[in-house]
Every structure is written in C-alpha cells, then in structure tokens.
Design brief:
By secondary structure, the protein is of the alpha+beta class. It contains 3 helices and 5 strands; from the N terminus they run αβαββββα. A hairpin with a 2-residue loop joins strand 2 and strand 3 (62-73). The longest helix has 19 residues, at 2-20. It is extended, with a radius of gyration of 18 Å.
C-alpha cells in the first residue's frame, strides 16, 4: 500500500513538472563576488560559501572548479549561470569568471539595474 502511495506521489510531481515545463540542475548561488579575492581566497573559503563544486577540471594545466545553476524551460526562456574558479598551486584563487543569462544578472552587468556590475573580466 505504501508503495502505491509513493508511486502516485511521484507521478503527480512528475506531471506537475512537465506541465510547468521547467527543469533545474545545479544549485542556486549568489551573483555577487566581492568576497572572492585573487591570491587570498582559498579552497576552504569557497567551499564555505558555495559548497562542493559541481564540476572540477583543468584549463591549460590549471585546476578549476565550476559552479552552475541551469534552469531549462519547455515554454519560455531558459537561463543559466556559471562561476569558474582557477586555482594557484597554493590553493588560492588565481582568477575567476562569471557568466549568466538570468535577467537580474544581465541587467546588473549592463548597468540597467542601477547596481554596479557583479563580475569583472579575467585579466
């Protein structure tokens, strides 16, 4: 009996998700990075704020972590945002990049929101 109730609950959730036409992947994270400092912020600092990275890898032999939040919609626009952090050998931030298609981030970077930009380019 419990199995049938669980199956019905799962089916209702699935139907609701399909009707909404929205699937998310990754974790939501803040789009402000004043706390993230080159040569100062360390692995533990980043994990404290953002948790474990969604992806790890290398860029030209430099270790990198990627945090992503992806919202795909069947109806309407989909949005994504990614934060990539590149690490020095001493486990401090070498550089980072942030990209987003979420309207609030696009407006902040383009200056339309009245706020200062949330990201700066890697130098």
């Amino acid at each position: 009996m419990k199995y049938k109730k669980s199956l019905h609950s799962f089916a209702l959730i699935l139907v609701f998700a399909i009707l909404q036409g929205c699937v998310s992947n990754g974790r939501e994270f803040p789009s402000r990075f004043e706390w993230l400092q080159k040569g100062k912020s360390r692995h533990d600092d980043v994990k404290l704020v953002l948790g474990e990275p969604q992806f790890v890898g290398y860029s030209d032999s430099t270790p990198s972590w990627t945090y992503g939040h992806y919202r795909y919609r069947l109806f309407g626009p989909s949005h994504t945002k990614e934060l990539k952090i590149y690490w020095n050998p001493d486990k401090t931030v070498q550089s980072w990049s942030f990209t987003s298609s979420f309207p609030e981030d696009v407006n902040a970077v383009s200056g339309q929101s009245g706020q200062r930009p949330v990201a700066t380019p890697i130098k």
